Amino acid sequence: MSPTSEPTADEPQHRSPDVDHTNLTSAPELTAADLGLTFEGGHRAIEEVGFRIAPGEFVSIVGPSGCGKSTLLRLVAGLLTPTAGTLDVGATSRDEHRPAFVFQDPRLLPWRSVTGNVRLPLELLGQTSAETAATIASALELVGLTGEDATKSPRMLSGGMRMRVSLARALVTEPTLFLLDEPFGALDDIIRQRLNEDLVAIWQQRRPTTLFVTHNVSEAVFLSQRVLVMTPGPGRIAAEFAVPFEFPRRPGLRAETRFAELTGEVSATLREVSA
Ligand SMILES: Nc1ncnc2c1ncn2[C@@H]1O[C@H](COP(=O)(O)OP(=O)(O)OP(=O)(O)O)[C@@H](O)[C@H]1O
User: Fold this and answer.
1) Of 130, 151, 174, which one is at a domain's C-terminal end?
2) 3-state helix, strand, coil in the chain (%, to 5)
3) Domain stops at, among 152, 174, 196
4) If you write DSSP's letter for every residue of 29-66 in order, what string do you get?
5) Which residue among 18, 60, 67, 116 is buried most deeply as judged by most CB within 10 Å?
């Protein structure tokens, strides 16, 4: 564990021989220094947040409820503007990095089929149905949905499948910056674990710079190269943990002593900062 308020990530340190680094040229580096956000009305959500996230890195953020995790993600997405400090997403325009956001609620349009939902971001980019067919098929395959699923209406799908559609819709534009806000929080344990395994595989294949917010420490450790722990609001980054496990992450990792030990350490720190 290392307390951190300044940018500390060191890209080579997080490189793993088991991970494909070939797509890293387009993924952004994220740097924050003394970052703060005070909402209108005076509520300080986060303050003095500092980090450096390497291009293509997978970082999870854990912290007590209300500590500002979603606020931090919204700042990185450009949905909020910092009221203090600096945040650099490695480009003058966030569009350059095609950011994609996934929320706990899949937010599918009920009147559109699975394909129609996944096509939406491409339509917003002005692409026609003929142009998008192959891209949509590839996004659906990436998240484990079949051609038969593609024709279904969202109401015919389980919660886990709806989340797969939400992931496909986010991935269809091939984002280089991937932001996920507690996406699997409403799912049962087994479905959640499968989606975790699939998400790691997708990240390995595409290598977007990824920020993942979760309340679940075990999920954070399973997925990430690094876990940041935030204090209660106004949130700061109190500690960070490097996750040294090789990729791909196998389901059996969760049963290993080294996994339990690291999860225990992160949980203990979270309890400490929350006390
Ligand atoms: N638009 C807003 N105006 C004022 N305060 C807000 C606004 N949005 C969020 N907050 C407050 O800012 C703080 C941080 O909220 P945020 O949603 O970022 O926390 P969080 O860590 O993601 O919470 P949770 O884990 O419960 O989802 C909370 O106290 C919240 O009530």
Assistant:
1) 174
2) 40, 20, 40
3) 174
4) PEEEEEEEEE-TTS-EEEEEEEEEE-TT-EEEEE-STT
5) 60
State the residue range of the domain holding 233: 49-98+176-274
- With respect to residue 31, please indicate whether it lies within any of the assigned structural domains: no
DSSP 8-state secondary structure symbol assigned to residue 143:
T
Are 199 and 256 in the same domain?
yes
Structure tokens at 68: 């500002």
Q: Is the ipTM of this complex over 0.85?
A: yes
pTM of the model: 0.89
Give how many domains the chain has, as a whole number.
2
pLDDT, tens digit, 9 for 90 and up, residues 147-167: 999 999 999 999 999 999 999
Residue of 140, 232, 251 lying closest to 189 (CA atoms): 251
Report how far residue 50's alpha carbon sits from residue 108's, in angstroms, rounded to the nearest whole number: 34
Residues 89 and 155 in one domain: no
What is the distance in A from the centroid of ligand 1 to the CA of 108?
24
Rounded distance from Cα 49 to ligand 1 centre (Å): 15
